[in-house]
Amino acid sequence: MCAFGGVDIRPQIAELKKGVEILVATPGRLLDHVENKSVSFASVQVLVLELIEVARRNQVSENITHRVHPVSEYGKRGLLIKLLKSSEIRQCLVFMRTKQGCSRLTRELQRAGIQADAIHGDKSQLERIKALEAFKAGQTHALIATDVAARGLDVDDLPYVINYELPHTPEDYVHRIGRTGRAGKLGNAISLVSAHEVGYLIDIEKLIKRPIEQVEVVGFEPEADYEYPPGNKKKRSAPPSKAPVAQRPERSERPARPERNERYPRRNPMIAADGFDFSKPYEDTSPRGEIPDSPIAPAKLDPHKPKRVVAALLGGMGRKRRKTAATSCRLF
Questions:
Q1: Is the separation of the CB atoms in 237 and 227 below 8 Å?
Q2: What stretch of H or E contains 162?
Q3: Domain boundaries, the chain
Q4: How many C-beta atoms lie closer than 10 Å to residue 326's C-beta?
């Protein structure tokens, strides 16, 4: 039986429960089965190790060239598209932290005209196998993957590994770039680092015991608060502002500005624009009843005074009836 990572582990567990005599496995997937107790070494008689290239733990290959591109968080996608469309990178494995980030970045690269595919935990086993086979065949330019999904992933002569996001632990960086520079071949590890990831970069440099070259790409500069090393008081200077169109006069040549009280006199907030004073109780100054404003002015009716009741008797014309109906109404 053959057991390797990058695919669903459950069918492998079901096959192991039936019993196998020979198991061929990658180290990462073999450890997964040991943790799941689907593999036991109690009855193992022979153990064969393929010693192509033995390295100490967390030691990186000397055949890998490391490079960091300081870039702002919102500029990473544009810089990645620029790198992938250049003639330098013909095929690469791009690492993301989350499954959602993998799917989103894959769609954005496809819209930019780049042959890209994703491999992560939400993909079915068949989808992951197809994506991996297309990548190995050279049909896919960029394969976007998470750390877990890429465990046990082996691609012959992979030239580039790109860290779109730096891992939170430096050991994961070593595992990521271990996919390139194998069997004595040259490899390249490129990392896109924004201001909040500088701390992760420092931890990686301490682990691999070497500084990583930082190269800025014109048009994709990092944030103004990008500090290397972190805590450095000398921050990056902001880009120079454009010169004004007209020369402003010197301060000594400008006319003196009036004081605030002279420009904007203070107004009592209790006095309305029409002069009404809200601080005083309300008084009705309009005339009431039929009191005229002047001797020659007509009388004004009081709207609150009840109107006079007028009665009218209406009678019918023509033939007399025994009973006469009278109707009264009120006229207002």
A1: no
A2: strand 160-163
A3: 1-50, 64-214
A4: 9
User: In which residue are the tokens 């089965």 written?
Assistant: 33
**Long-range pairs for 294-297: beta carbons < 8 A, 24 or more residues apart:** none
Kindly give the pairing relationship between strand 187-193 and strand 64-70: parallel
Are the C-beta atoms of 166 and 197 separated by less than 8 Å? yes
What is the rounded radius of gyration, in angstroms, for the C-alpha atoms of the chain?
A: 43
Cα pseudo-dihedral 313, 318, 319, 322, rounded to 10: 10
Q: What is residue 324's predicted lDDT score, i.e. its pLDDT?
A: 45
Place of tokens 């096959």: 15
Return d(Cα 270, Cα 267) in angstroms, integer: 9
CB 184 within 8 A of CB 156: no
Give me the pLDDT at residue 55, please: 47
Encoded tokens for 310: 């007028």
In percent, the amount of the chain with pLDDT more than 90 equals 36
Q: May I ask the CATH class of domain 64-214?
A: alpha beta
Residue 206: exposed, middle, or buried by beta-carbon count in 10 A (0-12, 13-18, 19+)?
exposed
pLDDT (0 to 100) of residue 315: 63
For residue 230, whether the previous peptide bond is cis, meaning omega lies within 30 degrees of 0, is: no
| Cα 186 → chain centroid | 35
Q: Quote the CA–CA distance of 43 and 50 in Å, as a whole number.
A: 21
The model's pLDDT over 279-332, given as tens digits with 9 standing for 90+, comes to: 777 666 555 544 455 555 555 555 556 666 666 666 655 555 554 444 444 444
Given CA atoms 296, 302, 306, 309 in this order, what sign does their dihedral have?
Answer: positive
- Give the separation between CA 160 and CA 235, rounded to whole angstroms: 31
Phi, psi of 119 (to 5 degrees): -140, 115
